[in-house]
Amino acid sequence: MGSALAAPAAGPPLARVSGPPFAFALTTVPDVPCTGGDPVVRAIREMTHEEKARAREVRARYHRSLDEMESAERRMREEGRSDEEIARVLAAMRNEAKDVTRAGMSSEAVAVLEARNLAKYGNPLGPTADQQYAKYGSWAKAINAATRSSAAVDQELGLEPRH
């Protein structure tokens, strides 16, 4: 059985992944609590070892897209762009990276991720630059938030969180 977040094997960074979607059916892993917290973390805890390995590969590819965003930020700073301009570009890049990463996932898996973001931000891909500005109170902090990953999700997948 598959998990809500099962994903296909990793491909190149920011490349749409093709292939069969994985089934949506949650399985319980013995001795792993699955209560409270982020629904994405709960779904990861219910993955099989193989599903978790695939999800880790997809997450690592997403991290590489965050690296690309940091490079874009450096280039824009060299060009003299404002923090607001940079934050807007990075927020859009982050949401595009999520969209690309999800392209090879089953529709059910994407639905779990999108439902979380719709409830939290009113947008299936995540917060806008304006929402980040409103939350953090500055464009510089919005830039930092755009290149940060979820520590809880990364930890569940055995990856180092981004800042």
Counting DSSP H or I runs of 4 or more residues, the number of helices is: 7
Distance between the termini: 34 Å
Query: Which class of secondary structure composition applies to the elements?
Result: mainly alpha
Proportion of residues in helical segments: 55-70%
Average pLDDT across residues? 79
Shape: globular
Ranges with pLDDT <50 over ≥5 residues?
A: 1-35
Give the biggest beta sheet: none
Number of beta strands: 0
Give, in order, the helices and strands.
HHHHHHH
Radius of gyration: 16 Å
Into which percentage range does the β-strand content fall? Answer: under 5%
Topology (SSEs and partners):
Blueprint: H1 39-45, H2 49-78, H3 83-102, H4 107-121, H5 129-136, H6 139-146, H7 151-156
Give the structure's gist in a few sentences.
The chain has seven helices and no strands. It has 163 residues and is an all-alpha fold.
Feature tags:
mainly alpha, 7 helices, globular, disordered N terminus
Can you describe what's shown?
The protein is mainly alpha-helical. It is 58% helix and 0% strand. The protein is built from seven helices and no strands. The protein has helices at residues 39-45, 49-78, 83-102, 107-121, 129-136, 139-146, 151-156. Helix 2 packs antiparallel against helix 3 (83-102). The longest helix is centred in the middle third of the chain and has 30 residues, at 49-78. It is globular. Mean pLDDT is 79; it is low at 1-35.
